[in-house]
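I have been asked to look over a protein record a colleague put together. This is what I was given:
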Amino acid sequence: MLLASSILTYYSTNTSADSPSGHVILVRVAYWLSIFLRRLGKLVAVFNAAWIVVIGFFQFSSFYNRCFCNSNIMGFGKNAYVIISLASDELGDIRAAQIGGFFFSAGAAMIFAGLVRLMIITPP
């Protein structure tokens, strides 16, 4: 959303004033749509940040510890423990997900940098 807003802002601010009337209407629509998308993108970012903070509070307040495996805490108290062990085939899947996530995020960053570079370069 924010990338589309940036592109529409660039389009609406870098047009000549002596354009035909139909083109002026498109420029106005692009201008208002860019403002709407920018505000909507920031609103989504605020909700996303708030959601992460709320989930963190729930996690650290033991809200999610309601499964049967934690029931031994009632009987053992401070001597209770839970053993978590991963099988070797799960480790491969975890590593593949980490590598895939890295390359997808790096690809998205390179595409964004390329689009910004296209917007910065002015034609002769």
The longest helix spans residues 21-60. The mean pLDDT is 81. DSSP finds four helices and no strands in the chain. The two ends are 30 Å apart (CA to CA).
